[in-house]
Amino acid sequence: MKKIIIVIAIMILSAVSVPNCIFAQDMAKDPVNIYFFWGEGCPHCEQEKIFLKQIAQKYPQIKVFDFEIWKNSQNRNLMIEFGKKLNATVSGVPFTVIGEKYVVGWMDEKNTGAQVEEAIKCALNNTCRDIGREITDIEQQKDVSNQENSKIPETLTVPILGEINTKNFSLPVLTIVLGALDGFNPCAMWTLLFLISLLLGMKNKKRMWILGSVFIVASASVYFIFMSAWLNLLLFIGFIVWVRVTIGLVALAGGGYNLREYFTNQESGCKVIGTEKRQKVFAKLKTIINQQNFYLALGGIIILAFAVNLVELICSAGLPAVFTQILTLSDLPKWQYYFYILLYILIFMLDDLFVFFAAMITLQMTGITTKYSQLSHLIGGILMLIIGLLLLLKPEWLMFN
Amino acid sequence: MKVLKFGAVWCAGCLIMKPRWQEIEKELPWLKTEYYDIDESVEVAKDYNIEAGTMPTFVFLDKEDNEFLRLHGEIDKEKLLKILEENKDK
Questions:
Q1: A233 with A176, same domain?
Q2: Under an 8 A CB cutoff, do A197 and B9 touch?
Q3: Segments in chain B below pLDDT 70
Q4: What are the structural domains, with CATH classification, of chain B?
């Protein structure tokens, strides 16, 4: 956690200073171009940077183009494109391409530096192709072609809402759909229902409202902390192809599980934890609620909310993980990442909020039908399979910005 | 005929079924029902092999207390009424 905080801090501090992007740079036609992919905060990249500065003085014909990939998804995709073209396993940075040669990682000047210099010499002798130039030419052609052949309109006119931008609209819709699919699970609210049953028996209504609200807020906080940490981890290492592939496979497995639940658990029964564990949680809740000291009760309810929701979260980590991966694919400003996480959690918690407020206001327990949880298994399963396939085969379709 | 209703305070489906059964019991005064919270009546739940994962569960017993039907989950009121009327004399 401490490391993640440090990394986040570095990323925030450097956010303004490194807007490196291939299209912003003037690609030289005649000199030897060096394409240097690096990550903010990567010590090996810093060492190679110093080396490249020195070598640029030694060979005035070379021009270095650098691409920060941990924060810039466009640069990250470009690196993946280079990897494909070169048939190289791009597993990390620094990644340096000179002509048609590439070097992954950095050891020291004697080893990696010598490899880079050798590649420069090769390119200077005009015996090497400039892979980078080929890719950027293709990218530019693709851009023109996409602009000409785009079949999806950028704006749509919708009744009531008026004109909406399809790109801006897709991510909020996907957030709401995934949040609803993840959250609409009446079976998962067993702890909250038990807590409400205890709260309704209390004489002190103020205490009843506070303890219940704190439980809801603490539950939402667990999700927020987990998803934010996951987001930052993915922003940090998400460029590694295998991370995306793994999450794609998780989505496929989650989709398969949901479909299996739909076809095999037709009685729409709720899967809950074992009797012993359940009884333990209930006993703790009873102790907390009956605690005379209000602050001890408050602390206890927060701790219990964290513990219970963490277990629930681990059991249903598939969708939040897939959702945060989609967020990282979309190159958004920092605040928007957190906005979408909050939106997801709000939708996720809607059924809990409804049950809680209905019970607190009417002083009677209200249930939410489990009838549609089967349907959510079917829709969720299909959606997870589609997202899984897109993550594996067409990640660019999930890039909403 | 008697119906044993197994539920729990934390079971969302049980909360949905509670008012439905209340209406049915009003409409069919001859019907005998017994409610068991599986966390409180652990032994009864064990005797009837009730699993927390299939709640709510309704066990239909004949005059000799032999089980002749078992239903799980949320059941429509009309369906329940039909079953009860059909098996009234059991």
A1: yes
A2: yes
A3: none
A4: 2-86 (3.40.30.10)
Asked if A370 and B73 come within 8 Å (Cβ–Cβ), the reply is yes
Greatest CA separation found in chain A? 88
The Cα A329–Cα A234 span in angstroms is 9
Measured in angstroms, the CA of B54 and the nearest CA of chain A are apart by 4
Q: Which of A197, A268, A271 sits opposite B73 (nearest CB)?
A: A268
Which segments of A59-160 does DSSP mark as H helices, in order?
Answer: 73-86, 114-124, 131-149
A370/B15 touch (CB, cutoff 8 Å), yes or no: no
Q: Which of B9, B10, B44 to mutate to test the interface with A (most CBs of A within 10 A)?
A: B10
Q: Which residues of B touch A368 (CB under 8 A)?
A: 12, 16
Tokens of A229: 């940490």
Which pLDDT belongs to residue A10?
A: 43
Phi-psi region of B37 (alpha: psi -120 to 50; beta: other; left: phi over 0): beta
Span A328-347, mean pLDDT?
Answer: 88
Q: If you count residue pairs, one on A and one on B, with CB atoms under 8 Å apart, how many are there?
A: 68
Contact A186 B9 (CB under 8 A): no
The Cα–Cα gap between B71 and B63 comes to 18
The total number of structural domains that make up chain A: 2
Containing structural domain, residue A102: 16-145
pLDDT (average), residues A294-323: 82
Q: What does chain A come to in residues? A: 401
CB < 8 Å to B11, chain A: 190, 193, 270, 367
Domain boundary among A119, A145, A171: A145
Same-domain status, A352 and A277:
yes
Measured CA to CA, the distance from residue A94 to residue A117 in angstroms comes to 16
Nearest CA in chain A to B56: A269
Q: Are residues A376 and A339 in the same domain?
A: yes
Whether the ipTM is more than 0.85: the answer is no
Rounded to whole angstroms, the Cα distance separating B19 from A319 reads 34
At residue A146 the predicted structure's pLDDT band, cuts being 50, 70 and 90, is: very low
DSSP-derived secondary structure for B31-79: -EEEEEETTT-HHHHHHTT--GGG-SEEEEE-TTS-EEEEEES---HHH
Q: Which residues make beta-bridge pairs with A163?
A: A157
> In degrees rounded to 5, what are phi and psi of residue A9?
-60, -45
Q: Per mean pLDDT, which of A129-133, A210-214, A277-281 is the most reliable?
A: A210-214
